[in-house]
Amino acid sequence: MLEFTLPSDSFPFGRATSGDPSVRVQLERLVPLRESRIPLLWATGTELTQFERHLRDSEIVTHVEAVTRLGDSVLYYVEWDTDKETFLNGLSEHNGSILDAHSDSEWSFTVRFRSHADLTRFHQFYQAHDYPVAIDRVYDPEEASRTEYNFGLTSGQREALMMAVQEGYFSVPRKTKLDEIADQLGITKQAASERVRRGAETVLRKSLIGLVSDTLEPADEA
User: Name one Pfam family in it (predicted).
Assistant: First the structure.
């Protein structure tokens, strides 16, 4: 299993989904790249007009459809020209299956490979093409399977969330503050806030989206 990050402006799909830096993008699920189809993706932000316009204008995107809306998040169905998406094509050709992918200023991926040899070939691929991949973690898939719930959290989000729960940040009344959590983690209050908020959003979305999907209303056409 491989966890890594990649700057949004360094590969075609990243550029296509970076029209508004305030918008968080999360892939809902993946289908084979050879079917010329981008997975369903969630875009979350207070104003998605710029993001959607940029997505529609991308040279690799052939179709965009707003499927449903949940609060300040919209689920989009997007198709693209796979011949122009070289990085994701390379990932697919080396038998990489994306389990989780999300973006703010950069894309974070969790990918499972069929074998260590496939992982090695992918490593050679992105180095040969000068993709600035930053490896966060490499581990055996069995390690992840031993965890009862694997929500695709980053290690920082998981650490911050666990501390928030243990210290009573979510208790009523609240027993600790974000600046106290930040002090214990050795990070800024803003960084602690982002890790707790985004981590909680990831857990809640993956836990609840299946329960509420049947009640969602279709999004208005842009």
Answer: BAT
